[in-house]
Amino acid sequence: MTDEGFLRRWARRKTEARSGIEPLPEAVAPVPAPDLPVQAAAPADVPPPTMDDVARLTSDSDFSAFVARGVDAAVRRTALKKLFADPHFNAMDGLDVYIEDYTKPSPVSEAMLASLEHAKNALQRVVEAVEEPPADEDALDDTNKTT
Description:
Blueprint: H1 6-19, H2 51-55, H3 73-84, H4 110-131, H5 135-146
C-alpha cells in the first residue's frame, strides 16, 4: 500500500473510475485476530455430558461442553447453577439499586411527622383565610341590606 493519504487515494480512484481505467487491486493489510481462544469443533463421537459429569464439576472446570448444542436442557441448567453458585460469580456488583423489597412500608420518622403536622397547620391557616370574608365586605353587606 502506498504512503499517499486518504484524500489523495480517494481522488485518484475517483479519477480512475471516471476515465474508465481499471483500478489495480490494492494490498489490504491483514487485520490482527483477537486474542480469544478458538473453539475447536467437537468430535461427533463424543457423547454429550450427563448429570454424572455435572456432579464432577469444580470451580476450575471447563463448562463449555455443557453449553454446546445437543446438551440436554436439564444438564445445562444444573451445570450453570453449579457455576453461578461459586462465590466469584455470586457477588453483588453494587449497581442493583432496585433490589430492595419496596412492598414493605418503612416507618415514618418523628421528624417527618413533625414536618407533616407543620404543613397541615400552615395549609389550614390558608384555608381559613380564604373562607373568612374581609372586614370591608361585611360593611358593604350591611349597607346593601338597608337599601
